[in-house]
Each structure stands twice: as C-alpha cells, then as structure tokens.
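User: Predict Cobalamin biosynthesis protein CobW's structure from this.
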Amino acid sequence: MFDKIPATIVTGFLGAGKTTLIRGLIENAGNRRLALVINEFGDVGVDGEILKSCGIESCREEDIVELANGCLCCTVADDFLPAIEALLKRAPELDHIIIETSGLALPKPLLKAFDWPQVRSRLTVDGVIAVVDAAAVADGRFVDDAEALAAERAADPSVEHDNPLEEVYEDQLLCADLIVLNKIDLLQPTEIERVKSAVEEASSGRAKVIATQEGRVDADVALGLEAGAENDLDSRPSHHDSETDHDHDDFDSFVVDIPALENPADYVRRLGEVAGRHDVLRIKGFLDVAGKPMRLLVQGVGSRFRQHYDRAWGAREARRGRLVVIGQKGLDRAAIEAALG
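Assistant:
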C-alpha cells in the first residue's frame, strides 16, 4: 500500500496574492517535488505564465497544468479530473500537488472531488489555504454598507439583495484550514487588527489566520497542515450547499488587445483610472513596450496596479499586448475597450 500524495488547495479572491504565495512555496520547497494545477477565470493564462518563467528547478514547465477560461468548481469532471489523472501517471516523481483556483471559484465543490473513489485512493487534501487581500477587506469590497442596505429595505421590504462578491469571499474563508491575510504593508497597525477580526468573524473562527506581505508563508507550515480536508466536508459550510449545480453568471471577463506602448507609466496610471471609473475587479496581462526586449507584466486589483518586466519576448513569440478584464455583470465593455485601446 503506497502513501497518498498530499494536495494543497490555494483559494482566494481575485488579486489576493495566490500566485505570489505559490511562487514563494516553490522557492522554499526544499527537496519536495511539486506539481501545479493553475486555474484562471479569463482566457489569458497570466498566472501559469508567471510560474513557468520563474526558473526554479523544483518546478519545471512540464509540472504545471493550466486550466483557463472557467472555474474548476464548475468543471470538476471535465477539467479537474483529467488534469489530476495525468499528474497521477507520474506519481513516483511527485511529493506534493498545489492547486490554485480562480479568484471567483468556490473551493468546496473542488474539495468534494477528492472524495471520489478514483481520487480518494491516491490523494489527500493536506489543507485549504485562503489568501485574503487585507486592503480590499479594509476598503469594504466584500461587505455591503449596512446602513444603506437597511434604508433600501425600509423603503421597499420586497427588495431581495444578493452580494455575489461577499458570497464567494465567505465561501473561501469558511472552507479554509489556513487564512493568509496578505498585503498588510498597505494598512496601518490598527487597520490590520480590525481586518483580522473581521476575517476571523467571517470564517467562524475555524481556521488559523496569519498576517503577511508578498504572500510569505513558511513552506513547512503551508504544505504540512495534515488536515485530511476531504474527510471534513460537513464542517465547511457554503452559501451553495443546497445547489446541485451552479455557475458564475454574476461575473464576466473579456480580453483587450493593446498596441505597443511608448510610455508604460502613463498607461498604467490610465488603467487605474479606468478600473476605478467602471468598478472593474481585476485587470492583468502582458504589454509590449516599444524598444524594450522584455514584456511588461501588469496586475491590478480595483484601481491598485503593479507592474514589472518579467522576461524577454521569445525569438518566435508574437509581441502583442493583451489584458484580461474581470468584473461583475453589466460592465460597459465598449467603453472600457475604447479607454484601454
């Protein structure tokens, strides 16, 4: 009887820092042989590209499986199982599998897949890690204005109010064994304590919460939770437990082709303005800067953006800028494309 391969599910909302955390785990994996399954909501594989270009010997390109343009929680049978079965064919070469869900994924349907006989006999879920953007929580991104909502219901008691952002956020926390409160460098100490308390309350106190920046978590901790989470489904409630199927009709994404840039700093400032004006949740992708041999990686959460040159364009690679835009249904796509193009 062979030991089961441990798997870690890394969940967290759009732009929380999941890929940064995973890269840190790869860099500090020691002698562990890792494989990655990377899932993205949009059809530009930014996260997989970031990890493929990291140049870390313990994580080769053939160890990375990319599943783009959808959420694993909706396509477990069609996408996740074939990906896992392909990795299991290499089981003797692997010590641990890390699965990064899309920022809009519900982790519990994916966790349930580990209870399927063909998976359960080979894998165990070492733990579910939820990465949280501390600044986004502090800004009230996931929680409605209680006073405004009460006034709305007082004016019209028949009004039904759903907040899909809050539901996804809470589902991710309620499924977690470890919550990584990331980006605390963007907050004041008093804000950190307030946000930590809010996260602990939203998670019902079931998970340990650690505060960090740049997704820094000790690999021995993150990859050694030993939760056996597939055996503990009932203690991980979800807003969608009563649903036999679900989708992500509350959210949408599209890709914008961007011509070569002369002034990338000005363009990134424009991205922040456009995201704020249209309440865009996430913009990320690669840009072509005229005269530069390297491509520019741009990532934004709301109106907060970061950018850096990540690698040189390949000799046979088409130099073209592409950005994926993600937001709630109702985005003015035409206006956003006109502003970004």
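The domain at 5-235 is CATH 3.40.50.300 (Rossmann fold).
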